[in-house]
Amino acid sequence: MSQLAQTCAITDLDQAVDEALARHGGDSTRLLQILIRAQERLDWLPPRAVTRIAAALGLSRARVEGVVGFYSFLHARSVGRYRVLFADNIVEEMQGAPALMRRLCERLWIEPGKVSEDGLVSVDATSCIGMGDQGPSALVNGVTITGLDEERIDAISELIREQISLESWPREFFAVDDNIRRRDILLNDRLAPGEALRRAVAIGGGALLAQVKTANLRGRGGAGFSTAQKWEFCREAPAQGGGRVVVCNADEGEPGTFKDRVLLTSFADHVFEGMTLAALAIGASKGFLYLRGEYRYLRDHLEQVLERRRAERLLGNGILGAPGFDFDIDIHLGAGAYICGEESALIESLEGKRGTPRIRPPFPVTHGYLGQPTSVNNVETLALVPIIAARGGEWFAQIGTKLSTGTKLLSVSGDCAAPGVYEFPFGVTIAEVLEACGAMDTQGVQLGGAAGMTLAPHEFGRRVAFEDAPTAGALMVFDGSRDMFAVARNFVRFFAHESCGFCTPCRVGTALLRDCLDKLQQGNGSPLDLVEIERLDRVLQTTSHCGLGQAAANPVLDGFRNFRAAYDRRMLHREFQPAFNLDAALARARQLTGRDDASAHFPERRS
Amino acid sequence: MTSAPKLRIATTSLAGCFGCHTSFLDIDERLLDLVEVVEFDRSPFTDIKHCGPCDIGIIEGGVCNAENVHVLREFRDNCKVLVAIGACAINGGLPAERNHLDLQDILIEVYQTGPSLDAEHAQIPNDPELPLLLDKVRPIREVVQVDYFLDGCPPSGDAIWKFLTDLLAGKTPSLPYPLRHFD
Questions:
Q1: Co-location of A88 and A229 in the same domain
Q2: Domain span at A61
Q3: What is the pTM of this model?
Q4: Which chain A residue has its CA at the smallest distance from B143's CA?
Q5: Residue A340 gets which letter from DSSP?
Q6: Looking at chain B, which residue has its C-alpha nearest residue A602?
Q7: Which tens digit of pLDDT belongs to each residue from B1-52?
Q8: Residue B40, domain member (yes or no)
Q9: Total structural domains within chain A
Q10: Do A445 and A489 reside in the same domain of the chain?
């Protein structure tokens, strides 16, 4: 590069960084947003950019680099001008995603995970991107592409080779369908924006809270904590300076779930109105929607809805003319970290840090975002609040079961005729859902994503409800042709990838568990490995810092319980086998020394 | 006077630093109590070259070359109970730091680079007597079944004493927290 060109490149880089900094007011709590913005313009984050951002924000370089290193979608190395990431959740794996990825790599003459020599393109895998009902799917430069098949892969490889910019790619590649298959109180609702808010403003925040309490609304993120109780704690916690905060958790990262994506697409007003109602109930002035990076394509649409609501005085100062009711919502993007769905990790991420779960107590309701009382609620929970506000808590409490009121959105994917979103009243049995979605010869159901439970046919009478089979909404169907060991192995790999690395039992345990299952897959399994797996499961469950590590063993434990044959099939040896091929491990040294004598090999051992 | 036959113990250091063996000697005068009830087979303490049938085998260090694999297998074949002692045997430890590097880069750096080497004639040693290096340093549990893990870098003499006396008494070794507390 000539000196002039080099100087120009440096100037461009500095300008991009400065624009990102200016856009976020040089605020160090917005570090993650600044990095995302800078990378949008630079394709990656070169060392000079990291240094410049650190200096401008008064942070140490290590602190900024630590954040860059934490999030999968931030890159400290160039990943090419086109970056294709295939979703590797089990449903899409079964639909042939790995073969499609290999096909694309072959067309582009590259290896997965490595940038092409001309710096044009890289292809890799990523965790579930919330398109399980219309996969195989991928992200291209962060934008979602669905319905991949060989034809589409070939077209994509042509577009990349000809360096066509993403805006000029065929629109249908980016089509994302709602696939709503069953509607109930939420998906049938036709409330006009502001209608519920008007009623709530008339009765006041306290009365609204009472309605939510009567409704017995429980958190839809999976834990089922009482929403009213959370809001009460938050409302009663003293707010210093900054005021209370409402956070909508739209970091829908559990493999196999996508119902929040549908709500954000077609019911965004419900979600934002729910947040505003929450603000009224707890006395908050600040709101965040934490949108997972995989759903970045939804950001413009959501910003437009926010803009319209501001124009209609449903957000801003003096909402609906009520003096002192000031509340606005800011969208924060995630950057590919499953752990940020955990509320305290999410808050860390909102503050521009690595998404490491906090030690609790104190809980976010008293010490959350920047130490302020913060209520973090799931998208679906918030979307239900306007309906409760409009139709009353008693009406809501009639629906569902006594302990789990209302309805639940289920993200159904896998081996069934009609994958998509189903809204059922709580208490519906697994068998009823399977019938509704047209599932045949079902061998197993993964309820609640990787961290949930793997159910066998004798458990299909169980009910979706907090008191029986709780779930955040993912329901993956596996028919008789599927290998349930492969299912568990996919989930274990997922946890090993997504472990935040903060605590040793999870960081090391998930990797060891992954290696154990790989060893079985490679045909080196013996009963002694099952003993080791059980030991690891126990360590993970009892000593991990947060739910990720505690849940990481679930797929294997359920697999032992319900699908033992799939594991026993892999016990090919009676005696312990090495985890790797010993003779192959000497190949490199043989090549470097030119040796091929007897002692340069390991004789084969039979068990 | 008749007494119970002594238990046989074998020890070795693979890709280790002998620190765990040194720590073993830190049991000091208790060594005299130990040899009342045990006999050492193959071990740096005895200089016996090959392992016979033993009750307990203690392995220090990870597996970095072909010879390590042969020794480890000899121990596993001959010892009723196999113990991994110290960070290297358990996780690969310090020698496993080389796993981040390519073997070729390492060998060139060591044998063919540097002002004291005659660059023209310096070559990577290839005598058949030398054991070949594995591409990566492995913890011993990836090669053979291991019955017990005694952690520490190294474990203290007291920890080794407690571990052995429990085992010799026929109990599952159990170390109180202070013996496993390292910082």
A1: no
A2: 3-70
A3: 0.91
A4: A578
A5: G
A6: B66
A7: 456 789 999 999 999 999 999 999 999 999 999 999 999 999 998 989 999 9
A8: yes
A9: 5
A10: no
Burial class (CB in 10 A: 0-12, 13-18, 19+), A228: buried
- The strand ranges marked E within A111-170 are 121-126, 138-140, 143-145
Of B107, B142, B145, the CB nearest to A528: B145
Give the domain-ending residue among A177, A208, A240: A177
pLDDT at A1: 58
| Residues A228 and A376 reside in one and the same domain | yes
Residues forming a β-bridge with A461 = none
pLDDT of residue A10: 84
pLDDT-derived band at A404, boundaries 50, 70, 90: very high
Would you say residue B113 lies in a domain?
no
- A87 and A8 share a domain? no
Per CB-CB distance under 8 Å, the chain B contacts of A600 are 66, 128, 132
Asked if B103 is an interface residue toward chain A (Cβ–Cβ < 8 A), one would say yes
ipTM at complex level: 0.91
What is the amino acid identity at position A141?
N
Residues A297, A370 within the same domain: yes
Residue B39's beta-bridge partner residues?
B8
- Chains A, B: CB pairs < 8 Å: 53
Q: Is the pLDDT of residue A276 over 60?
A: yes
The CATH number that applies at residue A139 is: 3.40.30.10
The owner of tokens 């954000």 is A264
Q: pLDDT averaged over chain A?
A: 95
Q: In chain A, which residue's Cα lies nearest the Cα of B126?
A: A593
Q: For chain B, what is the domain count?
A: 1
Q: Tell me the per-residue pLDDT of A83-122, one tens digit each, with 9 for 90 and over.
A: 999 999 999 999 999 999 999 999 999 999 999 999 999 9
Confirm or reject contact between B104 and chain A (CB < 8 A).
Answer: yes
Mind telling me how many Å the CA of A536 is from chain B's nearest CA?
A: 14
Nearest to A16 by CA among A7, A27, B43, A40: A40
B132, B180, B183: best to mutate for the A interface, most A CBs within 10 A: B132
The whole-number pLDDT of residue B1 equals 46
Q: Which domain holds residue B11?
A: 7-97+135-177
Among A462, A479, A496, where does a domain finish? A479
Spell out the residues 6+ positions from residue B25 whose beta carbon is closer than 8 angstroms to its own: B31, B157
Of B132, B138, B145, the CB nearest to A586: B132
Which residue from B171, B164, B160, B170 is spatially nearest to B20, judged by alpha carbons? B160
Report how far residue A410's alpha carbon sits from residue A186's, in angstroms, rounded to the nearest whole number. Answer: 12
Q: What are the structure tokens assigned to A530, written together? A: 């099952």
Return the structure tokens found at A408.
């639940």
Residues in chain B within 8 Å Cβ distance of A574 = none
- Between B109 and A431, name the one with better pLDDT: A431
**Does residue A600 have a pLDDT over 80?**
yes
Kindly report the CA angle at A267 between A262 and A273, in degrees rounded to 5? 135
CATH number of the domain residue A508 falls in: 1.20.1440.230
> Across the interface, do B132 and A597 touch by the CB < 8 Å criterion?
no
What pLDDT was estimated at residue A8?
A: 78
The answer to whether the CB atoms of B124 and A593 lie below 8 A apart is: yes
Decide if B117 is inside a domain: no
Residue among B145, B146, B147, B180 with most chain A CBs within 10 A, to mutate: B145
The rounded distance, in Å, linking the Cα atoms of B97 and B92 is 8
Angle at which helices A268-282 and A259-266 pack, to 10 degrees?
Answer: 90
**Helices within A24-149 (DSSP H only):** 31-42, 47-57, 61-70, 90-94, 97-108
Give residue A9's pLDDT band: very low, low, confident or very high (50, 70, 90): confident
**Do the domain assignments include residue B46?**
yes
By C-alpha distance, the chain B residue nearest A586 is B134
Q: Do A586 and B145 touch (CB under 8 A)?
A: no
CA distance A460 to A468: 12
Contact B103 A592 (CB under 8 A): yes
Q: Residue A454 forms beta bridges with which residues? A: A446
In this structure, are A65 and A118 located in the same domain?
no
